[in-house]
Amino acid sequence: MLPLLLLLAGADTSGYWQQRVAYQITASLDEPSGVLSGRVRISYVNRSPAALHDFYVHQYLNAFRPGSRWSAVDSAEERQRFQHLKDPDYAFERITQASLGMPDYPYAPDSTIAHWTLPRALASGDSMVVEIAWQARPSTLPRRQGRQGRRFDFAQWYPKVVVYDKYGWEDHPLYPAGEFYGEFAHYNVTLFVAEDQVIGATGVPISGDPGWERANANPSVPVDYQRNWYTRSSEENARARGLVFGRANDACNVTGLRERHQKCVEFEADSVHHFAFSLNPDYRYEQGRYGDVVVRVLYQPGDSATWGKGVAVQRTEMALAWLDSLYGKFAWPQITNVHRIEGGGTEFPMMVMDGSAGLGLIVHEVGHNYTMGVLANNEWREGWLDEGFTSFQTGWFFESHGQGPAYPGIEGNILFWDLERWSEPVSMVSERYRDFATYNTMIYTKAQLFYEQLRYVVGDATMRRILRAYYARWKLKHVDETAFRDVAEEVSGMDLKWLFAQWLHGTPLIDYRLKHVQRARRADGGWRTTVTIERLGDGWMPIEIGDRDTIYARATGQPEVERVEFITARKPKGLVLDPRVRTHDWNMLNNRERHRSSGKVEWRFDDPTREVARRDRTVFAVLPAVWSNDEGGVTIALRGRGNYLGRYNKTLALLSLGVDAPGPDNRGGAYVRFANPVAQLMPRTESNFACWAVEGRAGVAFSADRSLRRHPTFGADTHAGFDALWMATTDLGFVDTRMWEDAGTIEAGPWFGTIFQRGGGNTTWQGRVVVRGGAV
Q1: What pLDDT does residue 47 have?
Q2: C-alpha distance from residue 111 to each of 63, 92, 93, 431 (Å)
Q3: 320 contact partners, CB below 8 Å, separation of at least 6
Q4: What is the pLDDT of residues 450-483, one digit of tens each?
Q5: Which of 37, 308, 490, 541 could form a disulfide with 304 if both were Cys (CB 3.0 to 4.6 A apart)?
Q6: Taking Cα atoms as reference points, which of 29, 111, 113, 103 lies closest to residue 62?
Q7: Which of 467, 449, 367 is nearest to 406 (CA)?
Q8: Non-local CB neighbours of 134 within 8 Å, separated by 6+ positions
Q9: d(CA 6, CA 60)
């Protein structure tokens, strides 16, 4: 397969281009104020076919303060974060001087994008140098960045060139939903920090002391600085890439930046689209290696039990080994894993900032160094290409290490979102989702399910070949849906546009019914079986036909009615569609042969503390009961409750027998309630029908409850409904005559209710309006 992969990797990237950028940064941190002062020399080569009349940079730290679009979305979604921070707690990034003059801010009052009109157009092939001085400060409330005492997590902290690609300038403010997009560049970064600070960063330290020797928790493992990794000088590297660039040999002596008791550390990184760093004088350092890649781990001394003694190092090495097996050799010399201030994790090229040393978190964030770092998609335009991809490869990691497939859990979660019609297309631009919860579910979980479905369609071996060819062709380039789909189609030899269209650009429901099975004995003793499948949903997937142990055939799933014929040595029994539950078929109750009851219902003894639900069949649980009262004496009963998916075909049935009942008319009783029939799918609606005749009362009731809420996780929880009830007394001996008369009543009417919270959820308000009419 190697020649084929090399051929595919070298296939059509003609016409692709990306801009060339180099940063020469010198910055000094004043710890008491938390303010970093810096200067940057940006060398920019226009490799696009168009002349550029503008120039943009990101100032991402300005998102984490009042007045930003980030804060506006937080307020709209009832989150309290940066919109109320006061000085000196909020973050900022302020340009103080620029060779192009002071910029304007096209999205004001949001100032995460700064813009200049160029004094002359930058023609295709031309270059320019822009010099900027700025100040930056992280916020005390961490989010992907932050400061806490002498701990600093610097992410997106410098004037970062906006990507110019086939869509033009990608000048996009920073929102809570969606992340970043950067040009690949060469970085030379000189940092002036306190003498005792320990630094973790993108790149390799080519001069100065990052503090690793003093912090080394395992002195028997000497620190490998990799100072000579970039064997040619920065200037030679830059010239090889057509950049105007000069090495900062005297950067540590720049007037006005070096303060007393500070040290100077110079880092270099090549072919990365961001440079991040973290400072903490208490960091402990541990080191490992995977092949040529040095693994660096920096953690707090109090975290030695969970991070130290090689735990985080080994988990980072495991992540690299897994990812290399999927994609190919890691593109950079080192990976640094630091224990950041905030929980969770954020990825950067050659570096991850993690809130814990959990294996899943490390595999996920290191995974982003491949899907986002090396294969650099636009994270706000197509977040599924990195978050969903990384979630998928993390789930596959645990599956390959014996912890079971991720598919059932994520598929059940997304099935709820699809059936309740909360789902939105996975391909949407990040801030256009209904809310942050929808963005997270679609970009992480439903996108992960898309990759699982692709893996199901093409098979595991082909999926691996797709990933390796994709990485080989698009390494250290910007990628998009077309780039990935083209590779997937070429390697698999399949037309996959339908799969990408349905799973990324729509929200269809998939439902198949096994309509008919015909079996015929052949002359040679074998069996010819013809299966007729009906497609009831508006989406489709290839669907397998089998029984408990064997897959006999796979239907295309595309026609409304499809007949599939296969020949077997033995007579197949109990056929079912999608026996492995891999097609996202939402109603599997119609996937079995109608005349065969086996397997359609799971009978079990009921545990009253929990309700068991199955994806592929109805669950019905029974429980004996007994009670006693003055009129009827001892009564024995059998209660049963059933459901499908925990949400549909919800049944509650009770049959009772009065052992000491006064007469035969009162000896038996029954109650039956049925809710949410799967045949009448109504999103966000509860419907119930009940009837009963038990212990002196008989009746029929119907109710419907429609949720009107606009967001799944915040805002008013508003409902509207209708109730109808007929109740009659049949034996006054069983009832309290102070509350009941010997009569029948009918009552019905609509109702409206809402629940909402104020004050950050501290106060809950509830209101309900009911209109009733009735007759006795």
Answers
A1: 98
A2: 8, 9, 9, 17
A3: 290, 291, 293, 295, 330, 335, 366
A4: 999 999 999 999 999 999 999 999 999 999 999 9
A5: 308
A6: 111
A7: 449
A8: 37, 38, 39, 40, 59, 93, 94, 95, 96, 158, 159
A9: 39
Let me know: does 65 contact 71? Beta carbons within 8 Å. Answer: yes
Amino acid identity of residue 605, one-letter, is F
- Do residues 74 and 83 lie in contact, with contact meaning Cβ atoms separated by under 8 Å? yes
Note whether 47 and 105 are within 8 A (CB).
no
Angle, helices 497-505/481-492, rounded to nearest 10 degrees: 140
Using one digit for the tens of pLDDT, what is the confidence trace for 478-526?
Answer: 999 999 999 999 999 999 999 999 999 999 999 999 999 999 999 999 9
Parallel, antiparallel, or unpaired: how do β-strands 151-154 and 146-148 relate? Answer: antiparallel
Instruction: Report the pLDDT value the prediction gives residue 6, as an integer from 0 to 100.
Output: 46
Number of neighbouring beta carbons within 10 Å of residue 19: 19
- What whole-number distance in Å separates Cα of residue 195 and Cα of residue 385? 41
Q: C-alpha distances in angstroms, 748 versus 724, 745, 773?
A: 4, 10, 6
Q: Within 10 Å of residue 125's Cβ, how many Cβ atoms? A: 11
Cβ 315 vs Cβ 357: under 8 Å: yes
Beta bridge partners of 199: 279
Residues of the chain under the 50 pLDDT cut: 1-9, 240-242, 244-249, 255-256
Residue type, 56: Y
Q: How far apart, in whole angstroms, are the C-alpha atoms of residue 600 and residue 575? A: 12
Radius of gyration from C-alpha coordinates of the chain: 32
Distances (CA, A) of 266 to 189, 463, 564: 6, 41, 66
- In whole angstroms, how far apart are CA 691 and each of 34, 223, 620, 674, 772? 69, 76, 19, 9, 20
Tokens in use for 382? 């197509």
Q: How far is CA 288 from CA 205, 310, 320, 709, in A?
A: 17, 8, 12, 51
**Residue 383 DSSP one-character state:** G
For the record, the structure tokens of 63 come out as 């998102």
